[in-house]
Design a protein that fits this description.
elongated; 9 helices; mainly alpha
Amino acid sequence: MSNLLTSSIGRKLLMSISGLFLILFLFVHLILNSFLLLDGVFGLETGQMFNAGVHFMGTNPLIKVIEPTLALGFIVHIIYSLILTFQNRKARGTQSYASGNKTSGVEWASENMLVLGIAIFSFLAVHILNFYMKMKGFIAWEGGEVEFPFFGTMAKGENAYALVNETFKSMPIVLLYITGSVALAFHLAHGFWSSFQTIGWNNATWMPRLKFISNFVAIILGGGFAVIALAQYLFF
């Protein structure tokens, strides 16, 4: 166990596994966010579908168990990403900059994972302050209570939709979300296939497929979050 935590290979493995776990969370989060745009498709009043989704996430016992696990996943991924990045830079020293040229055959995202990670972390910090801290009651906000359909009956809960809609009426916030989403897309385009490579799934047959899937995942997640934020600003 100590080797897993201290060796370079062990750290890469933990970073990769935590990263793949966080990608699953991002897909769940994107599905929930898509509810912001889908009320009209299902003949519901604006905000009802999203409020029902937030109510489900807030009252489901399983989600209460997953939340601290998710937080641990973020912490592990960030810590080991920083450790490995600085270890690699220390190992290369000044040699990697001696020629004044970039390394050939290396993806831009691979060379800038630390910068992309910092951009995503900044975006995440703003997201937590704007939404999570308010929805959990750590920061006061006046959303009011509303009714919405919930598994065949009517339920009452906080008007989370009003909070999101109001927040996305600010162009600086929307631009921040778009910037963070683009950074996330580049991060995933490299990080997804790289995680499988670290785990050992890196043969000549599967690697091109994984890189294709990585680009698909990056476009869906990064593009999805950006489009939802922009659509809220423009049309809701």
